[in-house]
Structure formats: structure tokens, C-alpha cells
Amino acid sequence: MRRLSIPGAWVHEPEVIPDGRGSFHEWFRAADLGAAAGHALGLAQANFSTSRRGTLRGIHFADVPPGQAKYVKCVSGAVLDVVVDVRTGSPTYKRWEAVRLDDTDHRALYLAEGLGHAFMALTDDARVLYLCSEGYAPGREHGVDPLDAELGIAWPSDIAPLLSAKDASAPSLAAAEEQGLLPSYEACEAYYARLRAAAGAPVPGGRTEDQPLSPAGR
């Protein structure tokens, strides 16, 4: 897992093993994520989306606690996946970071509870999987305008963004803060500490470093 510049966000960069039949890779390993975050990902819901080129989904986040951590992978096509720190009081508040997720390098992105998430489809029929720590709860879900000039996310300039009516009407970050919609960094840190304390021990499972991957028999 490679740590991003925003606390609570990591990228999994797997070893992809090709052979004459295709390829094999491990796209999620509980041990790696547990070592990075300090606790396991409690899987409560798995989502799947298909998007045409230009589709822009987000910026989405949920109230903390419990929030909704996400582990995101593009299984077909490509997307520009963006993490936004919407936690008031965070040392990286308002910072965003983009990672290309595609069906070639097979990266996956993990973002902790309280962080904002958005992506733009770079190809037609871009297919994305999300593993979520909590189920969808409409009363706790919020959004921020992904085209907010204050955030200045560098979406591809050659692709016209296609937004849902809900995302298009989402408030700016400043307006969301004024309305009290944003999670606080203090509350998020307290929740992360609770998750780490509840874990109590290293996350079991996963391949150890002395057990290399092998495509044989996959």
C-alpha cells in the first residue's frame, strides 16, 4: 500500500502476472490494508457502477461516525479517481489527489471515513467496484460540487463532465462548511482510534513476503 499525501488515503499497486492465458493479480489483501490503516475493512456493502466517458460521480462523503470507508477498483476501462480532504481542521483540508485506476495496472484506492470521493470515467463502459465499510444511509450522505472552483480539481480538459442532477446541485465546499455538513478532523481521528483499538491485533490472512505469487494453477 502506498500512502498518499492526504492522511487516510492509500493506493494498492499489485503485482500483475501475465501468461499466455491472460493475467492474475491480488486486488485486495486484508493484511496489507490492515497494516496501513491499523484496522481491518469491515465489509458492509459492495457497489458496482458502469459509466460512459465523461461521467463524473461525486464528491461524496458521509457523516462520521460511522462514515463510510471505501476500497475502489476499476475492473474495465479507466477512471480518474480523486480523494478530497473535506475534514474541517485537517492539516490537508481542501487538498485533493488524483489516481488513475484502470484495467491495465489494476491499482485500487482506499480512503478512510470522512474523506470525499469522486471519479470521472475516461473511457466508455468504465466499470468500477466499491467495497464499503458501511451501508448506504441517505440521511447521512452528503456531497460537494466536484467542479467547485475553490477546490480546483484538474479534471481532463478535453472531456465534458456529465453529472447527475444531485451532484450538479451539490453545494460548494465553502457552503457545505457553512451549513455544517462537513465532518471534522477531530471526530474522524477519534473514530479511527476507536477502530484501531477494537482491532487489538494484526489483521490475519494474506500472503507473507516469503510466499511469492505464482500464476501456476490460477
Folded structure, characterized:
The protein is an alpha+beta fold. It has helices spanning 30-37, 165-168, 173-178, 185-199; strands spanning 2-3, 9-12, 17-19, 22-24, 45-51, 56-62, 70-76, 78-84, 96-102, 108-111, 116-121, 126-132, 141-143. The strands form three sheets. The protein has a six-stranded antiparallel sheet with strand order 1-2-10-7-12-5, with no helix packed on it. Strands 9-8-11-6-13 form a five-stranded antiparallel sheet, with no helix packed on it. A hairpin with a 2-residue loop joins strand 3 (17-19) and strand 4 (22-24). Residues 201-218 have low confidence and may be disordered.
> How many strands appear in the DSSP assignment?
13
CA-to-CA gap between the ends?
Answer: 23 Å
Beta-strand fraction estimate? 25-35%
Overall pLDDT score: 92
Q: What is the spatial order of strands in the main beta sheet?
A: 1-2-10-7-12-5
Helices and strands, with pairings:
Layout: E1 2-3, E2 9-12, E3 17-19, E4 22-24, H1 30-37, E5 45-51, E6 56-62, E7 70-76, E8 78-84, E9 96-102, E10 108-111, E11 116-121, E12 126-132, E13 141-143, H2 165-168, H3 173-178, H4 185-199
Antiparallel strand pairs: 1-2, 2-10, 3-4, 5-12, 6-11, 6-13, 7-10, 7-12, 8-9, 8-11
Concise overview:
This protein is α+β, with helices and mostly antiparallel strands and 218 residues long.
Provide key terms for this protein.
single chain, 218 residues, alpha+beta, 4 helices, globular, disordered C terminus
